């Protein structure tokens, strides 16, 4: 069973879509969705959650119970930190609950260093404060290294 938070509606509510174009229907998670009950009724072989940074801590508890009481593996994918370089609340709850955490590495948009931060742009300018959740694509967010998070290169650099 595939789930994704309803608030990420970039490609439609309840849809997991990759930048490479692959897309799958998913069950949308709303504030009152009881993921445990839905999984208990269907008993799938695995549960996949995308955009897990947007989960509420009660959903993370439900996922832990699915693993512990239904013996069904749960794999979550999501961002660790927001554009302010602070942990998303869902990711914080997942770090505390998870059996295993795997980092998927990517490189900085401006150089070959490891991307450790995410820069957010408003009208082409980096911003470091404001509301945490703003659904968007590559025009709004860029993965960057620590150096370029604090100072984006000027033209020609
Ligand atoms: N199946 C795939 N094969 C090859 N490259 C992939 C595949 N899936 C993703 N990628 C690479 O990873 C990038 C990010 O993929 P995406 O699924 O949008 O990740 P996320 O949602 O985690 O940001 C893509 O633009 C592409 O370069
Ligand atoms: C950093 C950051 C991201 N978001 C949003 C932007 C996108 O809708 C998703 C991330 O999707 P991806 O396919 O994994 O890149 O999260 C946000 O709301 N706030 C942020 O700080």
Automatic annotation (TrEMBL):
InterPro entries: P-loop_NTPase, Thymidine_kinase, Thymidine_kinase_CS. One of its GO terms (molecular function) is kinase activity. Transmembrane segments: none annotated. The keyword ATP-binding applies. This is Thymidine kinase. Its EC number is 2.7.1.21. It holds the Pfam family TK. The keyword Nucleotide-binding applies. Belongs to the thymidine kinase family. It comes from the Bacteria. It catalyses: thymidine + ATP = dTMP + ADP + H(+). Keywords: ATP-binding, DNA synthesis, Kinase, Nucleotide-binding, Transferase.
């Amino acid at each position: 069973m595939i789930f994704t938070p309803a608030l990420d509606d970039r490609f439609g509510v309840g849809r997991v879509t990759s930048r490479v174009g692959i897309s799958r229907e998913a069950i949308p998670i709303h504030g009152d969705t009881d993921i445990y009950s839905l999984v208990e009724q269907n008993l799938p072989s695995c549960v996949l959650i995308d955009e897990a940074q947007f989960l509420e801590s009660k959903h993370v508890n439900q996922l832990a119970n699915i693993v512990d009481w239904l013996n069904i593996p749960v794999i979550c994918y999501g961002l660790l930190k927001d554009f302010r370089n602070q942990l998303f609340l869902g990711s914080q709850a997942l770090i505390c609950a998870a059996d295993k955490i795997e980092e998927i590495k990517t490189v900085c948009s401006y150089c070959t260093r490891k991307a450790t931060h995410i820069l957010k742009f408003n009208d082409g300018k980096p911003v470091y404060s404001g509301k945490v959740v703003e659904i968007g694509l590559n025009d709004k967010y860029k993965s960057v290294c620590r150096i370029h998070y604090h100072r984006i290169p000027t033209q020609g650099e």
